[in-house]
Specification:
This protein is α/β, with parallel strands linked by helices and 177 residues long. It contains 8 helices and 5 strands, in the order H-E-H-E-H-E-H-E-E-H-H-H-H. 57% of the residues lie in helices and 14% in strands. Strands 3-2-1-5-4 form a 5-stranded mixed sheet. The chain is elongated, with a radius of gyration of 17 Å. The model has no long low-confidence stretch (mean pLDDT 96).
């Protein structure tokens, strides 16, 4: 999905939510954030979000609307993926998300880019290196010390200790100093 398609699918989802009289908010993360906000890549396979609700009924209604959009627009059932919620629940939500756009009954927020950089470094996946470098450039993070400072600001020590090796490898791959 490119940036235009991401916005179109959010628009369709917002319309479906309007039809069922549900207002929803999501926090945009992952590749879709990189495509729409950083522009370092042209497309992503899915849209990673955190659905901002603790109400089970609302969550289920949103998921039903997501599936309706998938069916009507011939998208993968996982076009909107909230698996990242598990990680966000463990490490904490962004400190200062800001509203990006509203699509009818759907409001989309984006985290501060430092949070996204911390998440990408925490995951430690080599396929995230391009995103890490783009975020670091945008934030003017040039050294390993600066990268560790971002990680330590957003990732709790008890969580970091479980993935420290992967985070260290990502920082070593992406920062020379």
């Amino acid at each position: 999905m490119n940036s235009k398609q991401i916005e179109q699918y959010f628009m369709f989802l917002g319309q479906k939510l309007d039809e069922i009289k549900i207002k929803a908010s999501v926090i945009l993360l992952g590749g879709a954030l990189m495509v729409t906000q950083i522009g370092n890549r042209k497309s992503t396979q899915d849209i990673d979000v955190v659905i901002a609700t603790n109400d089970r009924h609302t969550y289920q209604a949103i998921q039903s609307a997501v599936q309706l959009v998938a069916k009507e627009k011939n998208l993968s059932p996982s076009w909107l993926n909230d698996d990242v919620t598990i990680i966000v629940d463990q490490i904490g939500k962004p400190k200062a998300p800001r509203q990006w756009k509203t699509f009818s009954n759907l409001t989309v927020y984006i985290p501060e880019f430092e949070y996204m950089l911390a998440l990408k470094l925490f995951s430690g996946r080599p396929q995230d290196d391009r995103d890490i470098r783009a975020l670091a450039q945008r934030l003017q993070i040039h050294t390993k010390t600066q990268a560790w400072s971002i990680v330590n600001t957003y990732i709790p020590f008890n969580q970091l200790s479980m993935r420290n090796q992967y985070t260290t490898q990502a920082i070593d791959r992406c920062f020379t100093q």
